[in-house]
Amino acid sequence: MKTRLSDYYEKGIKYLLGLIAGTSILILFLIFFLLFREGIGAFHYVGVLDFIFGTKWLPVSEPPHFGALPMIIGSIIVTLGAGIIAIPAGIGIAVYLAEVAPRSVREIAKAVIELLAGIPSVVYGFLGLTVLAPIIKDLLDLPSALTAFTAALVLAIMALPTVVSISEDALDAVPREYREASLALGATKWETTVKIVLPSARSGLMAASMLGLGRAVGETMAVLMVAGNAMIIPHSIFDPVRTITANIAAEMGETVQGGLHYQALFGLGIILFTITFVINLITDLIFTKTSSVKRGASL
Amino acid sequence: MKMLKGGYMGNKNKMETRNLNLYYKGFQALINVSLPIKENTVTALIGPSGCGKSTFLRTLNRMNDVIDGTRIEGEVLLDNDSIYDVGVDPVVLRKKVGMVFQRPNPFPMSIYDNIAYGPRIHGHKKKDTLNEIVENSLRAAALWDEVKDRLHKSALGLSGGQQQRLVIARVLAVDPQVILMDEPASALDPISTAKLEDLIHQLKSNYTIVIVTHNMQQAARVSDFTGFFLNGEMIEYDVTNTIFTAPRIKRTEDYITGRFG
Ligand SMILES: Nc1ncnc2c1ncn2[C@@H]1O[C@H](COP(=O)(O)OP(=O)(O)O)[C@@H](O)[C@H]1O
Ligand SMILES: [Mg+2]
Least crowded by CB within 10 Å, which of A221, A291, B105, B206? Predict the structure, then answer.
Protein backbone atom coordinates (compact mmCIF):
# COMPACT_ATOMS: atom_id res chain seq x y z
CA MET A 1 0.00 0.00 0.00
CA LYS A 2 2.71 2.38 1.05
CA THR A 3 4.96 1.64 -1.91
CA ARG A 4 2.07 2.18 -4.29
CA LEU A 5 1.30 5.58 -2.86
CA SER A 6 4.90 6.74 -3.13
CA ASP A 7 4.96 5.28 -6.64
CA TYR A 8 2.08 7.53 -7.63
CA TYR A 9 3.84 10.38 -5.92
CA GLU A 10 7.04 9.81 -7.91
CA LYS A 11 5.10 9.55 -11.15
CA GLY A 12 3.04 12.60 -10.31
CA ILE A 13 6.15 14.73 -9.75
CA LYS A 14 7.70 13.44 -12.94
CA TYR A 15 4.65 14.36 -15.01
CA LEU A 16 4.34 17.71 -13.31
CA LEU A 17 7.95 18.59 -14.10
CA GLY A 18 7.48 17.33 -17.65
CA LEU A 19 4.41 19.50 -17.98
CA ILE A 20 6.26 22.60 -16.76
CA ALA A 21 9.19 21.98 -19.10
CA GLY A 22 6.80 21.31 -21.98
CA THR A 23 4.86 24.49 -21.24
CA SER A 24 7.95 26.69 -21.34
CA ILE A 25 8.95 25.23 -24.70
CA LEU A 26 5.39 25.69 -25.93
CA ILE A 27 5.40 29.32 -24.83
CA LEU A 28 8.67 29.88 -26.67
CA PHE A 29 7.12 28.43 -29.82
CA LEU A 30 3.99 30.53 -29.35
CA ILE A 31 6.08 33.68 -29.07
CA PHE A 32 7.95 32.80 -32.20
CA PHE A 33 4.72 31.88 -33.98
CA LEU A 34 3.07 35.11 -32.93
CA LEU A 35 6.06 37.20 -33.99
CA PHE A 36 6.07 35.47 -37.32
CA ARG A 37 2.34 35.71 -37.92
CA GLU A 38 2.29 39.41 -37.12
CA GLY A 39 5.56 40.27 -38.81
CA ILE A 40 5.67 38.16 -41.93
CA GLY A 41 3.49 40.61 -43.85
CA ALA A 42 6.22 43.24 -43.70
CA PHE A 43 8.78 40.84 -45.10
CA HIS A 44 6.32 40.05 -47.90
CA TYR A 45 5.75 43.66 -48.70
CA VAL A 46 9.36 44.85 -48.57
CA GLY A 47 11.31 41.66 -49.23
CA VAL A 48 13.52 40.14 -46.55
CA LEU A 49 16.80 41.47 -47.93
CA ASP A 50 15.47 44.99 -48.47
CA PHE A 51 14.05 44.92 -44.96
CA ILE A 52 17.39 43.94 -43.44
CA PHE A 53 19.69 45.99 -45.66
CA GLY A 54 17.44 48.93 -46.48
CA THR A 55 18.74 52.20 -45.05
CA LYS A 56 15.53 54.23 -44.96
CA TRP A 57 12.90 53.75 -42.31
CA LEU A 58 9.99 56.03 -43.20
CA PRO A 59 6.85 54.30 -41.98
CA VAL A 60 4.43 57.16 -42.64
CA SER A 61 5.71 58.51 -45.94
CA GLU A 62 3.92 57.69 -49.18
CA PRO A 63 4.98 55.03 -50.12
CA PRO A 64 6.43 53.94 -46.77
CA HIS A 65 9.99 52.65 -46.49
CA PHE A 66 11.02 49.89 -44.10
CA GLY A 67 14.80 49.53 -44.13
CA ALA A 68 16.02 48.33 -40.75
CA LEU A 69 19.78 48.58 -41.30
CA PRO A 70 20.35 51.76 -39.24
CA MET A 71 18.66 50.15 -36.26
CA ILE A 72 20.39 46.80 -36.72
CA ILE A 73 23.73 48.61 -36.83
CA GLY A 74 22.63 50.75 -33.88
CA SER A 75 21.80 47.68 -31.81
CA ILE A 76 25.02 45.95 -32.76
CA ILE A 77 27.23 48.98 -32.05
CA VAL A 78 25.62 49.69 -28.71
CA THR A 79 25.74 46.03 -27.70
CA LEU A 80 29.33 45.52 -28.82
CA GLY A 81 30.37 48.76 -27.15
CA ALA A 82 28.73 47.65 -23.93
CA GLY A 83 30.44 44.28 -24.24
CA ILE A 84 33.87 45.78 -24.86
CA ILE A 85 33.50 47.83 -21.69
CA ALA A 86 31.60 45.41 -19.46
CA ILE A 87 33.34 42.11 -20.23
CA PRO A 88 36.96 43.03 -19.37
CA ALA A 89 35.84 45.20 -16.46
CA GLY A 90 33.48 42.53 -15.18
CA ILE A 91 36.03 39.72 -15.43
CA GLY A 92 38.66 41.95 -13.85
CA ILE A 93 36.40 42.71 -10.90
CA ALA A 94 35.52 39.02 -10.60
CA VAL A 95 39.22 38.07 -10.55
CA TYR A 96 39.82 40.62 -7.83
CA LEU A 97 36.89 39.34 -5.77
CA ALA A 98 37.62 35.64 -6.25
CA GLU A 99 41.40 35.65 -6.04
CA VAL A 100 42.59 38.75 -4.23
CA ALA A 101 39.97 40.33 -2.01
CA PRO A 102 39.70 39.36 1.65
CA ARG A 103 36.58 37.42 2.54
CA SER A 104 34.82 40.40 4.14
CA VAL A 105 35.23 42.64 1.10
CA ARG A 106 34.07 39.80 -1.09
CA GLU A 107 30.86 39.19 0.86
CA ILE A 108 29.95 42.87 0.89
CA ALA A 109 30.73 43.28 -2.80
CA LYS A 110 28.62 40.28 -3.73
CA ALA A 111 25.65 41.65 -1.81
CA VAL A 112 26.02 45.04 -3.48
CA ILE A 113 26.28 43.46 -6.92
CA GLU A 114 23.11 41.47 -6.39
CA LEU A 115 21.40 44.66 -5.34
CA LEU A 116 22.62 46.47 -8.48
CA ALA A 117 21.29 43.66 -10.66
CA GLY A 118 17.83 44.26 -9.24
CA ILE A 119 17.57 47.97 -9.99
CA PRO A 120 15.00 48.66 -12.76
CA SER A 121 16.47 49.79 -16.05
CA VAL A 122 14.54 53.10 -16.06
CA VAL A 123 16.60 54.12 -13.07
CA TYR A 124 19.82 53.41 -14.92
CA GLY A 125 18.47 55.30 -17.92
CA PHE A 126 17.49 58.25 -15.78
CA LEU A 127 20.87 58.39 -14.06
CA GLY A 128 22.55 58.03 -17.45
CA LEU A 129 20.53 60.93 -18.78
CA THR A 130 20.91 63.29 -15.85
CA VAL A 131 24.36 62.43 -14.52
CA LEU A 132 26.45 60.55 -17.06
CA ALA A 133 25.41 62.37 -20.24
CA PRO A 134 26.35 65.88 -19.05
CA ILE A 135 29.73 64.61 -17.86
CA ILE A 136 30.44 62.93 -21.20
CA LYS A 137 29.31 66.05 -23.06
CA ASP A 138 31.73 68.25 -21.14
CA LEU A 139 34.62 65.83 -21.16
CA LEU A 140 34.50 65.03 -24.86
CA ASP A 141 33.14 68.38 -25.95
CA LEU A 142 30.28 66.90 -27.97
CA PRO A 143 27.31 68.81 -29.40
CA SER A 144 24.95 66.29 -27.86
CA ALA A 145 25.81 63.71 -25.25
CA LEU A 146 23.06 61.33 -26.30
CA THR A 147 25.16 59.00 -28.45
CA ALA A 148 25.91 55.35 -29.08
CA PHE A 149 28.83 55.72 -26.68
CA THR A 150 26.61 57.00 -23.87
CA ALA A 151 24.16 54.17 -24.44
CA ALA A 152 26.97 51.61 -24.51
CA LEU A 153 28.33 52.98 -21.26
CA VAL A 154 24.96 52.86 -19.52
CA LEU A 155 24.34 49.34 -20.84
CA ALA A 156 27.81 48.29 -19.72
CA ILE A 157 27.05 49.49 -16.21
CA MET A 158 23.78 47.58 -16.31
CA ALA A 159 25.38 44.39 -17.64
CA LEU A 160 28.28 44.58 -15.19
CA PRO A 161 26.55 42.89 -12.24
CA THR A 162 25.58 39.93 -14.44
CA VAL A 163 29.09 39.57 -15.85
CA VAL A 164 30.75 39.93 -12.45
CA SER A 165 28.55 37.54 -10.53
CA ILE A 166 28.60 34.76 -13.12
CA SER A 167 32.36 35.16 -13.72
CA GLU A 168 32.94 35.09 -9.99
CA ASP A 169 30.98 31.84 -9.72
CA ALA A 170 33.03 30.39 -12.58
CA LEU A 171 36.34 31.32 -10.94
CA ASP A 172 35.11 30.04 -7.61
CA ALA A 173 34.29 26.69 -9.23
CA VAL A 174 37.90 26.15 -10.29
CA PRO A 175 39.09 23.39 -7.96
CA ARG A 176 41.41 24.48 -5.17
CA GLU A 177 43.62 21.54 -6.17
CA TYR A 178 44.59 23.32 -9.41
CA ARG A 179 45.69 26.42 -7.54
CA GLU A 180 47.61 24.40 -4.97
CA ALA A 181 49.32 22.30 -7.63
CA SER A 182 50.42 25.43 -9.45
CA LEU A 183 51.68 27.19 -6.33
CA ALA A 184 53.48 24.03 -5.21
CA LEU A 185 55.35 24.02 -8.52
CA GLY A 186 56.76 27.42 -7.67
CA ALA A 187 54.33 29.55 -9.64
CA THR A 188 53.43 32.94 -8.22
CA LYS A 189 49.87 33.79 -7.33
CA TRP A 190 49.61 35.95 -10.44
CA GLU A 191 50.99 33.23 -12.74
CA THR A 192 48.53 30.80 -11.20
CA THR A 193 45.62 33.15 -11.83
CA VAL A 194 46.54 33.91 -15.42
CA LYS A 195 47.78 30.52 -16.57
CA ILE A 196 45.64 28.10 -14.58
CA VAL A 197 42.56 29.71 -13.05
CA LEU A 198 41.39 31.85 -15.97
CA PRO A 199 41.83 29.11 -18.62
CA SER A 200 40.10 26.59 -16.37
CA ALA A 201 37.15 28.93 -15.96
CA ARG A 202 37.10 29.82 -19.65
CA SER A 203 33.69 28.38 -20.47
CA GLY A 204 32.05 30.01 -17.48
CA LEU A 205 33.63 33.36 -18.35
CA MET A 206 32.34 33.02 -21.91
CA ALA A 207 28.88 32.27 -20.60
CA ALA A 208 29.07 35.32 -18.34
CA SER A 209 30.04 37.47 -21.32
CA MET A 210 27.25 36.11 -23.47
CA LEU A 211 24.61 36.61 -20.79
CA GLY A 212 25.91 40.15 -20.28
CA LEU A 213 25.61 40.79 -24.01
CA GLY A 214 22.16 39.21 -23.99
CA ARG A 215 21.08 41.63 -21.30
CA ALA A 216 22.50 44.55 -23.31
CA VAL A 217 20.96 43.66 -26.67
CA GLY A 218 17.48 43.26 -25.22
CA GLU A 219 17.50 46.40 -23.09
CA THR A 220 14.95 49.02 -24.10
CA MET A 221 14.11 51.76 -21.65
CA ALA A 222 17.61 52.87 -20.72
CA VAL A 223 18.71 52.91 -24.34
CA LEU A 224 15.65 54.83 -25.45
CA MET A 225 16.55 57.49 -22.89
CA VAL A 226 20.24 57.96 -23.69
CA ALA A 227 21.02 56.81 -27.25
CA GLY A 228 19.73 59.91 -29.03
CA ASN A 229 17.45 57.84 -31.29
CA ALA A 230 18.44 59.36 -34.65
CA MET A 231 17.46 57.07 -37.51
CA ILE A 232 20.81 57.26 -39.27
CA ILE A 233 23.71 54.94 -39.91
CA PRO A 234 26.28 56.27 -37.43
CA HIS A 235 29.76 57.27 -38.62
CA SER A 236 31.32 57.03 -35.20
CA ILE A 237 30.35 55.89 -31.73
CA PHE A 238 29.79 59.55 -30.86
CA ASP A 239 26.81 59.79 -33.19
CA PRO A 240 23.31 59.29 -31.89
CA VAL A 241 21.77 55.94 -32.81
CA ARG A 242 18.44 54.22 -32.60
CA THR A 243 18.34 50.59 -31.56
CA ILE A 244 15.78 47.99 -32.60
CA THR A 245 14.29 47.81 -29.14
CA ALA A 246 14.10 51.55 -28.71
CA ASN A 247 12.36 51.90 -32.07
CA ILE A 248 9.77 49.27 -31.29
CA ALA A 249 9.01 50.94 -27.97
CA ALA A 250 8.89 54.41 -29.52
CA GLU A 251 6.68 53.61 -32.51
CA MET A 252 4.37 50.87 -31.30
CA GLY A 253 1.94 53.38 -29.89
CA GLU A 254 1.41 55.08 -33.26
CA THR A 255 0.52 51.98 -35.21
CA VAL A 256 -2.79 50.47 -36.25
CA GLN A 257 -3.04 46.85 -35.24
CA GLY A 258 -2.49 44.64 -38.28
CA GLY A 259 -1.34 47.57 -40.40
CA LEU A 260 1.89 47.56 -42.40
CA HIS A 261 3.81 49.67 -39.86
CA TYR A 262 2.62 47.37 -37.09
CA GLN A 263 3.80 44.38 -39.09
CA ALA A 264 7.15 46.01 -39.76
CA LEU A 265 7.72 46.48 -36.01
CA PHE A 266 7.03 42.79 -35.52
CA GLY A 267 9.50 42.15 -38.34
CA LEU A 268 12.06 44.02 -36.23
CA GLY A 269 11.04 41.75 -33.36
CA ILE A 270 11.88 38.71 -35.48
CA ILE A 271 15.35 40.11 -36.19
CA LEU A 272 15.94 40.85 -32.51
CA PHE A 273 14.69 37.41 -31.57
CA THR A 274 17.12 35.88 -34.05
CA ILE A 275 20.07 37.86 -32.67
CA THR A 276 19.23 36.84 -29.09
CA PHE A 277 18.68 33.27 -30.20
CA VAL A 278 22.12 33.16 -31.83
CA ILE A 279 23.76 34.55 -28.67
CA ASN A 280 21.99 31.91 -26.56
CA LEU A 281 22.90 29.19 -29.01
CA ILE A 282 26.58 30.11 -28.78
CA THR A 283 26.36 30.11 -24.97
CA ASP A 284 24.72 26.71 -25.11
CA LEU A 285 27.37 25.26 -27.42
CA ILE A 286 30.07 26.47 -25.06
CA PHE A 287 28.34 24.80 -22.12
CA THR A 288 28.11 21.50 -24.01
CA LYS A 289 31.77 21.72 -24.86
CA THR A 290 32.64 22.18 -21.19
CA SER A 291 30.84 19.07 -20.07
CA SER A 292 32.65 16.98 -22.67
CA VAL A 293 35.98 18.22 -21.30
CA LYS A 294 34.85 17.26 -17.82
CA ARG A 295 34.07 13.78 -19.09
CA GLY A 296 37.69 13.53 -20.15
CA ALA A 297 37.52 14.05 -23.90
CA SER A 298 40.51 15.75 -25.44
CA LEU A 299 40.67 19.51 -25.24
CA MET B 1 67.31 10.67 20.95
CA LYS B 2 68.89 7.24 21.00
CA MET B 3 71.32 6.17 18.31
CA LEU B 4 69.55 5.01 15.19
CA LYS B 5 70.73 1.92 13.40
CA GLY B 6 70.25 1.31 9.69
CA GLY B 7 71.78 1.65 6.25
CA TYR B 8 71.01 5.34 5.80
CA MET B 9 72.02 6.62 9.19
CA GLY B 10 75.10 8.31 7.79
CA ASN B 11 73.12 10.41 5.31
CA LYS B 12 73.09 14.09 6.08
CA ASN B 13 69.94 15.93 7.08
CA LYS B 14 68.43 17.32 3.90
CA MET B 15 65.70 18.96 5.93
CA GLU B 16 65.00 19.23 9.61
CA THR B 17 62.38 20.71 11.88
CA ARG B 18 63.16 21.96 15.36
CA ASN B 19 60.49 22.50 17.99
CA LEU B 20 57.92 23.24 15.37
CA ASN B 21 54.55 24.57 16.51
CA LEU B 22 51.74 25.46 14.12
CA TYR B 23 48.48 27.20 14.94
CA TYR B 24 45.35 27.47 12.79
CA LYS B 25 43.84 30.61 14.32
CA GLY B 26 43.41 29.45 17.94
CA PHE B 27 43.93 25.71 17.32
CA GLN B 28 47.39 24.22 17.75
CA ALA B 29 47.82 21.55 15.08
CA LEU B 30 51.54 20.81 15.60
CA ILE B 31 53.18 20.62 19.00
CA ASN B 32 56.93 20.81 19.32
CA VAL B 33 57.77 18.60 16.35
CA SER B 34 61.47 17.89 15.82
CA LEU B 35 62.25 15.59 12.94
CA PRO B 36 65.24 15.02 10.66
CA ILE B 37 64.75 14.18 6.99
CA LYS B 38 67.77 12.34 5.64
CA GLU B 39 69.02 12.95 2.14
CA ASN B 40 68.21 10.31 -0.50
CA THR B 41 65.91 8.40 1.79
CA VAL B 42 62.19 7.90 2.11
CA THR B 43 60.69 9.15 5.35
CA ALA B 44 57.16 7.97 6.11
CA LEU B 45 54.76 9.85 8.37
CA ILE B 46 52.04 7.71 9.92
CA GLY B 47 49.30 8.30 12.44
CA PRO B 48 45.51 8.44 12.72
CA SER B 49 43.70 10.99 10.57
CA GLY B 50 43.59 14.49 11.99
CA CYS B 51 46.87 14.06 13.85
CA GLY B 52 48.65 16.72 11.77
CA LYS B 53 50.55 14.74 9.10
CA SER B 54 49.37 16.88 6.20
CA THR B 55 49.87 20.03 8.20
CA PHE B 56 53.43 19.01 8.98
CA LEU B 57 54.13 18.12 5.36
CA ARG B 58 52.85 21.49 4.21
CA THR B 59 55.17 23.34 6.57
CA LEU B 60 58.08 21.85 4.61
CA ASN B 61 57.24 23.78 1.41
CA ARG B 62 55.34 26.61 3.08
CA MET B 63 52.04 25.66 1.52
CA ASN B 64 50.41 26.59 4.81
CA ASP B 65 51.30 30.20 4.02
CA VAL B 66 48.37 30.12 1.61
CA ILE B 67 45.88 29.45 4.43
CA ASP B 68 44.64 32.53 6.30
CA GLY B 69 45.38 32.69 9.99
CA THR B 70 48.19 30.13 10.28
CA ARG B 71 51.05 30.95 12.60
CA ILE B 72 54.24 29.02 12.99
CA GLU B 73 56.96 28.84 15.67
CA GLY B 74 60.25 26.97 15.65
CA GLU B 75 62.53 26.17 12.77
CA VAL B 76 62.36 24.36 9.47
CA LEU B 77 65.73 23.90 7.79
CA LEU B 78 66.63 23.01 4.25
CA ASP B 79 70.36 22.32 3.87
CA ASN B 80 70.76 23.95 7.29
CA ASP B 81 69.11 27.22 6.23
CA SER B 82 65.81 28.27 7.73
CA ILE B 83 63.07 28.33 5.09
CA TYR B 84 60.97 30.76 7.11
CA ASP B 85 63.63 33.47 7.19
CA VAL B 86 62.43 36.83 5.90
CA GLY B 87 64.76 36.65 2.92
CA VAL B 88 63.33 33.36 1.64
CA ASP B 89 60.89 33.55 -1.26
CA PRO B 90 58.35 30.71 -0.93
CA VAL B 91 58.13 30.61 -4.71
CA VAL B 92 61.81 29.73 -4.96
CA LEU B 93 61.55 27.29 -2.07
CA ARG B 94 58.68 25.39 -3.70
CA LYS B 95 60.76 24.84 -6.79
CA LYS B 96 63.23 22.95 -4.59
CA VAL B 97 60.62 21.21 -2.46
CA GLY B 98 57.91 19.75 -4.70
CA MET B 99 54.59 18.30 -3.61
CA VAL B 100 52.26 15.51 -4.72
CA PHE B 101 48.74 15.73 -3.36
CA GLN B 102 46.30 13.16 -2.08
CA ARG B 103 44.01 13.27 -5.07
CA PRO B 104 45.67 13.32 -8.50
CA ASN B 105 45.29 16.90 -9.70
CA PRO B 106 46.45 17.26 -13.30
CA PHE B 107 45.53 20.58 -14.87
CA PRO B 108 42.76 20.48 -17.48
CA MET B 109 45.24 20.68 -20.35
CA SER B 110 47.29 18.26 -22.41
CA ILE B 111 49.76 15.81 -20.90
CA TYR B 112 52.59 17.75 -22.51
CA ASP B 113 51.41 21.12 -21.21
CA ASN B 114 50.97 19.72 -17.71
CA ILE B 115 54.62 18.69 -17.58
CA ALA B 116 55.88 21.79 -19.37
CA TYR B 117 53.93 24.12 -17.08
CA GLY B 118 56.58 24.30 -14.35
CA PRO B 119 59.60 24.67 -16.68
CA ARG B 120 57.76 27.37 -18.66
CA ILE B 121 56.99 29.28 -15.46
CA HIS B 122 60.65 29.06 -14.55
CA GLY B 123 61.77 30.52 -17.83
CA HIS B 124 62.40 27.63 -20.23
CA LYS B 125 61.09 28.74 -23.60
CA LYS B 126 62.96 26.69 -26.20
CA LYS B 127 60.95 23.92 -27.74
CA ASP B 128 63.82 21.45 -27.79
CA THR B 129 64.61 21.98 -24.14
CA LEU B 130 60.96 21.58 -23.21
CA ASN B 131 60.60 18.42 -25.29
CA GLU B 132 63.61 16.98 -23.55
CA ILE B 133 62.37 17.89 -20.07
CA VAL B 134 58.94 16.44 -20.80
CA GLU B 135 60.36 13.17 -22.06
CA ASN B 136 62.89 12.80 -19.25
CA SER B 137 60.33 13.60 -16.57
CA LEU B 138 57.81 11.15 -17.97
CA ARG B 139 60.48 8.45 -18.23
CA ALA B 140 61.60 9.10 -14.66
CA ALA B 141 57.99 8.78 -13.53
CA ALA B 142 57.62 5.48 -15.43
CA LEU B 143 54.87 6.91 -17.58
CA TRP B 144 56.58 7.62 -20.90
CA ASP B 145 55.74 4.34 -22.63
CA GLU B 146 52.08 4.62 -21.72
CA VAL B 147 51.58 8.18 -22.96
CA LYS B 148 54.20 8.90 -25.61
CA ASP B 149 51.62 8.58 -28.41
CA ARG B 150 49.08 10.86 -26.76
CA LEU B 151 51.17 13.69 -25.34
CA HIS B 152 48.84 16.29 -26.76
CA LYS B 153 45.65 14.70 -25.49
CA SER B 154 43.99 15.92 -22.30
CA ALA B 155 45.59 14.67 -19.10
CA LEU B 156 42.10 14.20 -17.67
CA GLY B 157 41.67 11.16 -19.90
CA LEU B 158 44.33 9.20 -18.00
CA SER B 159 43.49 6.65 -15.31
CA GLY B 160 43.89 7.63 -11.67
CA GLY B 161 47.21 5.81 -11.35
CA GLN B 162 48.54 7.37 -14.54
CA GLN B 163 47.37 10.79 -13.37
CA GLN B 164 49.25 10.41 -10.12
CA ARG B 165 52.44 9.45 -11.97
CA LEU B 166 51.83 12.38 -14.32
CA VAL B 167 51.67 14.66 -11.30
CA ILE B 168 54.97 13.21 -10.09
CA ALA B 169 56.48 13.79 -13.54
CA ARG B 170 55.21 17.37 -13.35
CA VAL B 171 57.03 17.81 -10.06
CA LEU B 172 60.21 16.21 -11.44
CA ALA B 173 60.11 18.60 -14.40
CA VAL B 174 61.02 21.56 -12.18
CA ASP B 175 64.02 19.63 -10.88
CA PRO B 176 63.29 19.60 -7.14
CA GLN B 177 65.54 18.22 -4.41
CA VAL B 178 62.84 17.08 -2.03
CA ILE B 179 59.47 15.58 -2.96
CA LEU B 180 56.59 15.62 -0.48
CA MET B 181 53.76 13.15 -1.04
CA ASP B 182 50.52 13.36 0.91
CA GLU B 183 48.80 9.97 0.82
CA PRO B 184 49.59 9.67 -2.89
CA ALA B 185 48.10 6.19 -3.22
CA SER B 186 44.90 6.65 -1.27
CA ALA B 187 42.80 7.07 -4.43
CA LEU B 188 44.53 4.29 -6.38
CA ASP B 189 43.81 0.61 -7.02
CA PRO B 190 46.32 -2.03 -5.81
CA ILE B 191 48.12 -2.38 -9.16
CA SER B 192 48.60 1.36 -9.56
CA THR B 193 49.69 1.52 -5.94
CA ALA B 194 52.35 -1.13 -6.54
CA LYS B 195 53.64 0.83 -9.56
CA LEU B 196 53.74 4.00 -7.50
CA GLU B 197 55.69 2.28 -4.73
CA ASP B 198 58.21 0.95 -7.27
CA LEU B 199 58.57 4.45 -8.58
CA ILE B 200 59.18 5.89 -5.12
CA HIS B 201 61.90 3.31 -4.66
CA GLN B 202 63.62 4.37 -7.88
CA LEU B 203 63.33 8.09 -7.18
CA LYS B 204 65.10 7.74 -3.86
CA SER B 205 68.55 7.67 -5.44
CA ASN B 206 68.10 11.18 -6.85
CA TYR B 207 65.64 12.80 -4.49
CA THR B 208 64.73 13.03 -0.85
CA ILE B 209 61.18 11.86 -0.28
CA VAL B 210 58.69 12.39 2.53
CA ILE B 211 55.49 10.39 2.26
CA VAL B 212 52.36 10.57 4.39
CA THR B 213 50.42 7.35 4.45
CA HIS B 214 47.64 5.81 6.49
CA ASN B 215 48.61 2.40 5.16
CA MET B 216 51.10 0.79 7.54
CA GLN B 217 52.20 -1.92 5.11
CA GLN B 218 52.97 0.79 2.62
CA ALA B 219 55.08 2.69 5.11
CA ALA B 220 56.92 -0.54 5.93
CA ARG B 221 57.47 -1.30 2.24
CA VAL B 222 58.65 2.03 0.92
CA SER B 223 60.31 3.93 3.73
CA ASP B 224 63.67 3.96 5.44
CA PHE B 225 62.57 6.07 8.38
CA THR B 226 59.17 6.47 9.98
CA GLY B 227 57.71 9.14 12.21
CA PHE B 228 54.57 8.38 14.21
CA PHE B 229 52.24 11.34 14.85
CA LEU B 230 49.43 11.59 17.37
CA ASN B 231 47.32 14.65 18.20
CA GLY B 232 49.83 17.05 16.69
CA GLU B 233 52.85 15.56 18.41
CA MET B 234 55.58 13.41 16.93
CA ILE B 235 55.53 10.49 19.30
CA GLU B 236 58.33 8.36 17.90
CA TYR B 237 60.84 8.51 15.08
CA ASP B 238 63.15 5.71 14.12
CA VAL B 239 64.40 3.43 11.38
CA THR B 240 61.26 1.98 9.77
CA ASN B 241 62.20 -1.56 10.65
CA THR B 242 62.57 -0.69 14.31
CA ILE B 243 59.29 1.21 14.46
CA PHE B 244 57.44 -1.76 13.06
CA THR B 245 59.21 -4.51 14.99
CA ALA B 246 60.38 -2.98 18.25
CA PRO B 247 58.82 0.42 18.96
CA ARG B 248 59.95 1.99 22.18
CA ILE B 249 56.72 3.71 23.01
CA LYS B 250 53.51 1.96 23.93
CA ARG B 251 51.24 4.27 21.94
CA THR B 252 53.23 3.57 18.78
CA GLU B 253 52.88 -0.14 19.32
CA ASP B 254 49.15 0.21 19.99
CA TYR B 255 48.68 2.12 16.75
CA ILE B 256 50.79 -0.24 14.65
CA THR B 257 49.09 -3.32 15.98
CA GLY B 258 45.74 -1.72 15.19
CA ARG B 259 44.52 -1.13 18.70
CA PHE B 260 43.31 2.34 17.71
CA GLY B 261 43.27 4.68 14.73
N1 LIG C 1 42.91 25.00 7.33
C2 LIG C 1 42.67 24.53 8.57
N3 LIG C 1 42.08 25.33 9.48
C4 LIG C 1 41.83 24.87 10.74
N5 LIG C 1 42.13 23.64 11.16
C6 LIG C 1 42.72 22.79 10.30
C7 LIG C 1 43.01 23.19 8.95
N8 LIG C 1 43.59 22.14 8.32
C9 LIG C 1 43.65 21.14 9.23
N10 LIG C 1 43.13 21.52 10.41
C11 LIG C 1 43.06 20.72 11.64
O12 LIG C 1 44.37 20.37 12.01
C13 LIG C 1 44.43 19.03 12.45
C14 LIG C 1 45.42 18.25 11.61
O15 LIG C 1 44.93 18.14 10.29
P16 LIG C 1 45.75 17.41 9.14
O17 LIG C 1 47.11 17.93 9.15
O18 LIG C 1 44.98 17.51 7.91
O19 LIG C 1 45.74 15.89 9.68
P20 LIG C 1 46.10 14.56 8.89
O21 LIG C 1 46.71 14.89 7.60
O22 LIG C 1 47.02 13.84 9.81
O23 LIG C 1 44.82 13.80 8.74
C24 LIG C 1 43.01 18.48 12.36
O25 LIG C 1 42.43 18.56 13.62
C26 LIG C 1 42.34 19.41 11.40
O27 LIG C 1 40.97 19.52 11.71
MG1 LIG D 1 46.02 14.44 5.64
Answer: A291
Q: Which helix (H) or strand (E) holds A65?
A: strand A65-66
Give the start-end residues of each E strand in chain B.
13-24, 27-38, 42-46, 70-78, 81-82, 97-100, 178-182, 208-212, 225-230, 233-239
Residue type, A83: G
Tens digit of each residue's pLDDT (9 = 90 or more) over A144-164 = 889 899 999 999 999 999 999
Domain with A292 in it: what CATH number?
1.10.3720.10
In SS3 terms, B202-214 reads as: HHCCCCEEEEECC
Q: Do A297 and B103 touch (CB under 8 A)?
A: no
Q: Give the architecture-level CATH label for domain B13-109+175-256.
A: 3-Layer(aba) Sandwich (3.40)
Q: Residue A123 belongs to what domain range?
A: 68-298
> For B151-207, what is each residue's pLDDT tens digit?
999 999 999 999 999 999 999 999 999 999 999 998 888 998 998 999 999 999 999
Interface test with B, best of A99, A106, A183 (most B CBs within 10 A): A183
pLDDT reported for residue A293: 44
N- to C-terminal Cα separation, chain B = 26
* Residues of chain A contacting B68 with CB distance shorter than 8 Å: 103
β-bridge mates for residue B259, sequence order: none
> Is the torsion defined by CA of B104, B106, B108, B111 positive or negative?
negative
Tell whether the model's pLDDT for residue A239 goes beyond 80. Answer: yes
Listed by start position, the domains of chain B span: 13-109+175-256
Q: pLDDT by residue (tens digit) across B91-108? A: 999 999 999 999 999 999
